[in-house]
């Protein structure tokens, strides 16, 4: 049943304009490119370095858990493989489908940005959602792959932020300035 819903959804949303625009979001998410660029820019400024490191570690953790461990355990074939589709809007990715690495990296970054930078919430949310949606639209992931990737990314970001908070040097409540 979920497979028929996915096929219907893909057919219902498909149009020439989206076929032109949506694959670019899928491609910009390849290898976490947009997030690695954001990390690089954050690491350049001392004020945002901590945020950049949190995004980096959250994405790295999501990559290891999702792409290195889970994909090989679950071994779910991609939709275009299962249904024999050959004309994709993006180059066909290799490997398994579950969970979506694009969604996990996007939502790991989104969660850190959401917690640390009020001004970046809307643009980062838009990018993360479009990247995640694009993976279903271009027929390389099932919706459940994207949902699992999003949950994994959020969980890895929360774990990273909790770990950072745990090892931060506490600031004194008051100053012991004796003069």
Q: What oligomeric state is this?
A: single chain
Number of strands: 0
Measured on Cα atoms, how large is the radius of gyration?
19 Å
> Low-confidence spans: pLDDT under 50, at least 5 residues?
none
- What's the story with the biggest beta sheet? none
Q: What's the pLDDT, averaged over the residues?
A: 85
Class by helix and strand content? mainly alpha
Number of helices: 8
Strand content: under 5%
Shape: elongated
Determine the N-to-C terminus distance.
75 Å
Order of helices and strands: HHHHHHHH
Range of helix content:
55-70%
Which SSEs are present, and which pair or pack?
Blueprint: H1 2-13, H2 16-28, H3 33-44, H4 49-74, H5 79-82, H6 101-116, H7 121-137, H8 143-167
Helix pairs in contact: 2-7, 3-4, 4-6, 4-8, 6-7, 6-8
Summarize the structure.
With 179 residues, the chain is an all-alpha fold. It has helices at 2-13, 16-28, 33-44, 49-74, 79-82, 101-116, 121-137, 143-167.
């Amino acid at each position: 049943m979920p497979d028929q819903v996915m096929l219907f959804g893909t057919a219902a949303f498909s149009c020439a304009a989206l076929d032109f625009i949506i694959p670019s979001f899928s491609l910009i998410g390849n290898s976490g490119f947009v997030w690695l660029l954001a990390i690089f820019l954050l690491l350049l400024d001392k004020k945002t370095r901590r945020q950049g490191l949190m995004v980096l570690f959250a994405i790295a953790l999501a990559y290891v858990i999702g792409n290195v461990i889970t994909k090989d355990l679950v071994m779910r074939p991609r939709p275009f493989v299962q249904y024999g589709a050959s004309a994709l809007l993006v180059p066909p990715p290799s490997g398994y489908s579950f969970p979506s690495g694009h969604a996990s990296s996007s939502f790991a970054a989104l969660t850190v940005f959401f917690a640390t930078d009020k001004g970046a919430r809307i643009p980062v949310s838009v990018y993360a959602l479009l990247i995640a949606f694009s993976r279903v639209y271009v027929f390389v992931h099932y919706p459940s792959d994207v949902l699992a990737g999003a949950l994994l990314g959020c969980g890895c970001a929360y774990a990273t932020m909790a770990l950072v908070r745990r090892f931060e040097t506490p600031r004194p409540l008051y100053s012991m300035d004796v003069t």
